[in-house]
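Input.
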Amino acid sequence: QVQLVESGGGLVQPGGSLRLSCTASGIIFSIKAMGWYRQSPGKQRELVASITSSGSTNYEDSVKGRFTISRDNALSAVYLQMNSLKFEDTAVYYCNREPPTEYWGRGTQVTVSA
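Output.
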């Protein structure tokens, strides 16, 4: 069974930074592309960043230059460094394979507020 556990969210002021972490089990992590997704109230979940097994990355336009996705295959972990946070980054953030499995973790709340 796939298990995904996200952590690292919190309340931050605009312009601040957070680093999200995700650990995965039940998948052959090292050969799978992984992604960070987010969902704001009233909106569909969206992919914001992805990383292939070899480390190639891709970003949604609104986060390019501000977010950095990375992974540690030995730990079955994926990270999202978020800098220069904006109000519109407020959301629950989830990790999953890219494309995603049917299994989702509880996510971690990121709130950007003055």
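The mean pLDDT is 95.
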